[in-house]
Amino acid sequence: MAPIDTGRLEADAWFGAVPAARRTLLLAQASVRTVAAGTRLYGVGDPPDGLWAVLDGQVRLIGYPAVGAELVVLMMGPGTWFGELSTLDAGPRPHDAIAFGAARVLHIGIEAFRRLAAATPELWWDIALLACAHQRASLAFMMNTLSQPIPVRLARTLGGMVRAAGGDSVALRQEDIAAMIGVSRQTLNKALKAMEREGVIALAYARIRVVDAEGLRRLGKG
């Protein structure tokens, strides 16, 4: 197995706060693999299979609030952990975990985690804190994004994606953006066209370029 970038993992607020001895126990049980874009690590209704972390790339946690509708619950970037809820309560997975682009992920199987936690019960507290952190992040996302008008949601989402990409453009399908801001593709297309007419963005096939960064920031303020 390739060496695990512990520095990147420890930079995560949750994992970095776990005592070093328990971090070592967890990583000793981990396996690492590279997955292709669109790989489903687990799906809605699946039984718990343990904890996951992103080493490179991005994994999106996607829920389905209505038939035919998608909603990105959280976007997990390098160093972040997920999969703790079903690990805690042994219930089915509440969402899909899907790689957005190629990704390298770390996995600690459910049985391995349970053996560790039987010997070191403090691990249950550790992942309870991870569940709390994700709950707070989801609530903040809903309050700061989903409660806003569609142009504001779109501007904030595009701004965040462009900053994360480190340039002035992002490669994104409209279906993915629609899922991130909780609208239909048709509604998203109208909002994107309006932004393009205002000279804020330029649209190309599966790519959006920010032409007016300051204009995008103003739109994001509402």
From TrEMBL:
The record's annotation in SUPFAM superfamilies points to: cAMP-binding domain-like (SSF51206), Winged helix' DNA-binding domain (SSF46785)
Q: What's a single GO CC term here?
A: cytosol
Spell out the Pfam families in the cross-references: cNMP_binding (PF00027), HTH_Crp_2 (PF13545)
Query: What are the residue boundaries of the HTH crp-type domain, all occurrences included?
Result: 148-214
One example of the protein's molecular function in GO is: DNA binding
Query: Keyword annotations for this protein?
Result: DNA-binding, Transcription, Transcription regulation
- Residue ranges constituting the Cyclic nucleotide-binding domain according to the UniProt record: 14-123
- Tell me the CDD domains matching this sequence: CAP_ED
What InterPro entries does the record point to?
A: cNMP-bd_dom (IPR000595), cNMP-bd_dom_sf (IPR018490), Env_Response_Regulators (IPR050397), HTH_CRP (IPR012318), RmlC-like_jellyroll (IPR014710), WH-like_DNA-bd_sf (IPR036388), WH_DNA-bd_sf (IPR036390)
PANTHER family referenced in this protein's UniProt entry, alphabetically: CRP FAMILY TRANSCRIPTIONAL REGULATORY PROTEIN, HTH-TYPE TRANSCRIPTIONAL REGULATOR ARCR
Name this protein carries in UniProt: Crp/Fnr family transcriptional regulator
